[in-house]
Amino acid sequence: MKIILFGATGDVGGAALQAAISRGHHVTAVARKPEALGAVGPNVTLLALDLLDQPQAASEAARGHDLVISALRPPAGREADLVPLTRNALTAARLAGIPALVTGGAATLKLADGSGHTVLNAPGFLPDSVRPIAEACAAQDALLDAETEAQWTCLRPPAILSEGPQTGSYRFGTDTLVTDAEGNSKISFADFGTALLELAEAPRGSHRKLTVAWGAPAPALAVG
Q1: Model's pTM, two decimal places?
Q2: Most buried residue, 26, 89, 167, 210, by most Cβ within 10 Å?
Q3: CATH code, domain with 8
Q4: What is the pLDDT of residues 192-219, one digit of tens each?
């Protein structure tokens, strides 16, 4: 498979890149400064491109690929850029006639306690420091809901996404935080990247939002 990966130098993008390499895919790794990736191997092409300022170049670059992966996260203070960045990635996929796999945020996922509260609106759940990116992720969700022309799937992280081991033991869900036996909702970047590539190789429907977290695999989720 030929994948164009936007946001290749970020934590999620880097994990997705490593997962794609390990599975033998050919990747065009796109970032403003892709040289930060260092030596990447023969199946990876580095492309310096600012998706926010060069949407036409991004659309041209996507042609000839089989899939767009958007693993974009703007820096602190520029959280509002997430929506136009995602829009440009979706446009690139649509014009290239290929699907897009978008990394989202946990903001609109429901808590697993049955309260009906979401990560974003649950009282006292989110620290103030992460509220700006959570609100940007909610706006990204709204953008996806309104996008009917591009073929997209969105994978959202659990409550905690951080450094950690690659275990291969995770579970997909839909609109509610996935938790393990102890009630924790978390996953490592490495396993999140692996889950992204699992969806890339075996899509589970289009115009669907999924989530994933550590936990014993459940029976196959009917999301196609």
Answers
A1: 0.93
A2: 89
A3: 3.40.50.720
A4: 999 999 999 998 889 999 999 998 654 4
The pair of three-digit structure tokens given for residue 163, joined into one six-digit string: 């450094």
Q: Is 219 domain-assigned?
A: no
Distance CA 71, CA 15 (A): 10
Number of domains the chain is built from? 1
- The dihedrals phi and psi of 22, each to the nearest 5 degrees, come to -65, -25
Q: Tens digits of per-residue pLDDT, 149-171?
A: 999 999 999 999 999 999 999 99
CB atoms within 10 A of CB 219: 5
Non-local CB neighbours of 19 within 8 Å, separated by 6+ positions: 190, 193, 194, 196, 197
Q: The domain containing residue 56 runs over which residues?
A: 2-214
The pair of structure tokens assigned to 196 is 């992204």
Cα–Cα distance measured from residue 23 to residue 1, given in angstroms and rounded to the nearest whole number: 10
| Max Cα distance, the chain (Å) | 50
Place of tokens 């996260």: 73
Whether residue 147 lies inside any domain: the answer is yes
User: In this structure, what token pair is assigned to residue 207?
Assistant: 């115009």
Residues 6+ apart with CB under 8 A from 98: 62, 65, 66, 67, 68, 151
